[in-house]
Design brief:
The protein has 361 residues and is an alpha/beta fold. It is built from eleven helices and 18 strands. It folds into two domains: 145 residues, Rossmann fold (3-Layer(aba) Sandwich); 190 residues, Dihydrodipicolinate Reductase, domain 2 (2-Layer Sandwich), CATH 3.30.360.10. The chain is 34% helix and 25% strand. The strands form three sheets. Strands 7, 8, 9, 10, 11, 12, 13, 14, 17 and 18 form a ten-stranded mixed β-sheet that branches. Strands 3-2-1-4-5-6 form a six-stranded parallel β-sheet, with helices on both faces. The chain has a two-stranded antiparallel ribbon with strand order 15-16. β10 and β11 form a beta hairpin. It is globular and about 70 Å long.
């Protein structure tokens, strides 16, 4: 990948997460940070300066101007979720490949329109779920696929939370229904549902049931919620997501022979290394004083942070389409859509008084 010429990225919107992604684009060996746009030229200029954009990077005072730039290959869109349909669809129509921040849409119906625009214009789509691209993730999947070590997946538990401060609850877009109506479900809940799907090899559950006790703000935005997911073959999963409790980022996958545990799924405790714990064919010793064999901790190091790995992978896919005449990889769009479908079902379950909701196609 690193030998390929660089793919040129533009960013529309100066959200906080754009700082992290702009750094990742700069560090990726096959990407180039080429432009930024905001609703005002002053804001875009200040953002570029604060985030060490290259001196030749273009600064635009409107999103449309950046999308009209023929030299931009990929557009990163970190705008509020309610604006994704408009700007991602327009970006696709302008033949720009798309990196779309999560949650990717307000609902699966809107996402389908975005993906239809991508397909019609032959552009690559990827969402901004960074942990999927960390080399740790591939190592963990190897264990989940080991018949002797892990066996058959039976259940998954995921928990993603952080304690937001007072200013967050007053000002952040994630608690404003006109900007991001899914609240905690769309933000940290996105990671929960995606991690469950990942563990289940993206096999969709048959139904979901939201957990009673969801916390809803006065504005009608979800601040904390949970759900259980159920598959036709008997697999199950649970998750909890919240803006109200201390930072937690865990997933536990339980198989007939083994267990996988991660305590820093979304953002590793240390940027360039990440760990996970495995136990396999575990029992207690004869005196019932210790585990045999003991769980093992595995550390995976990487020269490139996970967000850089994401940019590198996306750039490679775009190069295959742009130069080699390949087709966009639809895997990423499919996974995003499945995640969005589950979020939709959980939201409906909450609205219906925590009733079971069947998952459609």
């Amino acid at each position: 990948m690193s030998s390929e010429p660089k793919i040129r990225f533009g960013i529309i919107g100066c959200a906080d997460i754009s700082r992290k992604v702009s750094r990742a684009i700069t560090l990726a060996p096959n990407a180039e940070l080429s432009a930024v746009a905001s609703r005002t030229l002053e804001k875009a200029t200040a953002f570029a300066k604060a985030n060490n954009f290259p001196p030749d990077a273009k600064i635009y005072g409107s999103y449309e101007a950046l999308l009209d730039d023929p030299e931009i290959d990929v557009v990163y869109i970190p705008l509020p979720t309610t604006l994704h349909l408009k700007w991602a669809s327009l970006a696709a129509q302008k033949k720009k490949h798309i990196l779309l921040e999560k949650p990717v849409a307000v609902c699966a119906t809107e996402l389908d329109q975005i993906l239809a625009a991508c397909e019609a214009n032959g552009v690559q789509f990827m969402d901004g779920t960074m942990w999927l691209h960390h080399p740790r993730t591939a190592k963990m999947k190897e264990f989940l696929h080991s018949k002797d070590g892990f066996g058959e997946l039976k259940t998954v538990h995921s928990c993603l939370t952080f304690a937001a401060d007072e200013s967050f609850h007053k000002e952040n877009i994630r608690v404003k229904p006109d900007l991001d109506s899914l609240g905690a479900l769309g933000d940290v809940g996105w990671y929960c549902t995606y991690s469950i799907l990942w563990a289940a090899d993206y096999e969709m559950p048959k139904s979901v049931i939201a957990t009673p006790g969801a916390v809803i703000s006065e504005a009608g935005v979800i601040l904390a919620c949970g759900a259980s997911l159920h598959w036709e073959d008997g697999k199950s999963a649970t998750f909890h997501c919240s803006f109200l409790t201390n930072m937690t980022s865990t997933i536990t996958a339980l198989g007939t022979k083994g267990t996988l545990q991660v305590n820093d799924l979304v953002i590793p405790v240390v940027e360039k290394e990440a760990s996970f714990v495995l136990s396999s064919n575990t029992r207690v010793d004869d005196l019932m004083t210790s585990w045999v064999p003991a769980p093992s901790q595995h550390v995976v190091s990487t020269d490139l942070p996970q967000e850089v790995c994401l940019i590198q992978e996306l750039s490679h896919l775009v190069w295959e389409v742009k130069v080699n005449g390949g087709q966009p990889d639809l895997t990423w769009a499919s996974r995003s859509r499945k995640t969005q479908q589950i979020l939709d079902a959980v939201k409906v379950s909450i609205e219906k008084g925590f009733q079971t909701v069947e998952i459609g196609t």
